[in-house]
Write a structure and sequence with these properties.
single chain, 412 residues, alpha+beta, Porin, 8-stranded antiparallel barrel, 4-stranded mixed sheet, 8 helices, 31% strand
Length: 412
């Protein structure tokens, strides 16, 4: 046994030295491995197996019986270094070759047809040399790894050692990553034991060469969303958001100044109207004219204290795109900092659809923005919504600015 373990160790050491010589040419990544959940980065795969049983000869001695087998496994990537594999395997789909080169039905050890294993099931752990030495690299293709595992071994029920036993195995593998899958080759040696007396009944040394393929399902959508959110939580993005919020505060102060001027002008016009009604009682036309001016100021007051930006949309869309979410966050922050600020959220459309359809689409746009602000802690009674359809275009009616949601301050 010691001789066999020494042979395996020497073989693994040579492969490791060859890897280190080649790895010097690889890029040195120092990226942080993402923290995935349990259901991310599972793979399913299988392999075909050439196996040979040996007992008294060396590890390369396949004269005691050889087979073709197969396995199926589920593998979970735990880190850049470690992976776990749940495996079910039959070392031989047909069982050994007899004296006349015909299937005998069992591995042959010294002419005894009594050591055939129909299958095994267990758990393996893989350790990546690249992950251990070079760290996480999402662009890495080749991977050299060690594997070791234990499990249950199932034999023919008519052998003297019993039907169920246990096994241990270890080996060396190399895989190459394609798009969402990998191909691999593994060299493995295992040894089985009678479960009734495992210390003294180790038997069936089996060498195997596996050639296989596996498909990786990758991260779940939930983990992808979390990774995307973490990517936004950078100092650069924080500074950018802070600058945007400061700019919006300045715009809001300017809007308040314009609002005060507008109110003063309305009061002035109302005073003039009262004076006109007193002095020129017979001239109703003058009073009506002034009244229309005042009503015009009232109807257009949004132009004086609207926020100087809008949420824009693609054609026939009402959900806010990722590149527009910064505006939503900035408005929410302003409303949290200024509890007396309330907004009327108004949706608009271009002229690419019917009046009725665009009216409903504009209402959906406004309602969707309101929901996003409420989720960020803004009280619903501080927000009102309205849809204008395609009734108030800017410039060319086909311009993207007409597919928008705008914000107007409301006095309460």
């Amino acid at each position: 046994m010691l001789k066999k373990l020494f042979t395996i160790g020497m073989f693994a050491s040579l492969m490791f030295m060859a890897y280190n010589a080649n790895a010097q040419e690889e890029k040195n990544y120092k990226l942080e491995y993402p923290h995935f959940g349990f259901w991310s980065n599972w793979s399913i795969g299988g392999s075909v197996i050439y196996s040979w049983q040996y007992e008294h000869g060396g590890i390369l001695d396949w004269r005691d019986g050889s087979n073709i087998g197969a396995n199926l496994f589920f593998e979970k990537e735990l880190s850049p270094v470690w992976s776990m594999r749940l495996i079910g395997e039959t070392p031989g789909l047909y069982h050994g070759w007899g004296e006349n080169s015909l299937p005998t039905g069992a591995y042959n050890r010294d002419g005894i047809m009594g050591y055939d294993r129909y299958g095994k099931a267990g758990i393996d752990f893989k350790m990546s040399f690249q992950g251990l030495c070079k760290g996480y690299d999402p662009e890495r293709r080749g991977n050299l790894y060690l594997l070791a595992g234990v499990g249950a071994s199932f034999s023919r029920d008519d052998v003297e050692l019993g039907f169920v036993g246990m096994y241990m195995q270890g080996g060396l593998g190399w895989s190459y990553k394609l798009s969402h899958s990998s191909i691999f080759i593994e060299i493995v040696d295992d040894i089985a034991a009678d479960i009734a007396n495992p210390i003294h009944q180790w038997h069936d040394n089996t060498g195997m060469v596996r050639l296989g393929w596996m498909y990786n399902f990758g991260p779940t959508q939930k983990d992808l969303d979390l990774i995307a959110q973490r990517a936004l939580l950078t100092q650069e993005n924080f500074d950018k958001m802070s600058n945007e919020i400061d700019g919006l505060r300045n715009d809001l102060r300017d809007a308040k100044t314009r609002e005060a001027k507008l109110i003063n002008r309305i009061n002035e016009l109302e005073a003039n109207q009262n004076n006109t009604n007193t002095i020129v009682k017979a001239d109703d036309g003058t009073a009506d004219s002034l009244r229309k001016v005042i009503e015009g100021y009232e109807s257009n007051k949004h132009n004086f204290y609207a926020l100087p930006f809008s949420i824009t949309y693609d054609i026939d869309q009402y959900t806010v795109s990722e590149d527009q979410m910064g505006k939503i966050n900035a408005i929410a922050q302003i409303m949290k900092d200024n509890e007396d600020v309330n907004f009327d959220i108004i949706g608009y459309c271009d002229y690419s659809g019917s009046d009725a359809y665009n009216q409903k689409l504009s209402e959906k746009r406004a309602e969707n923005v309101k929901k996003l602000l409420v989720r960020r802690g803004i009280a619903e009674d501080r927000l009102t919504t309205e849809g204008k359809g395609k009734t108030m275009p800017f410039g060319d009616i086909k311009n993207a600015i007409n597919r928008r949601v705008s914000f107007y301050r409301v006095n309460k």
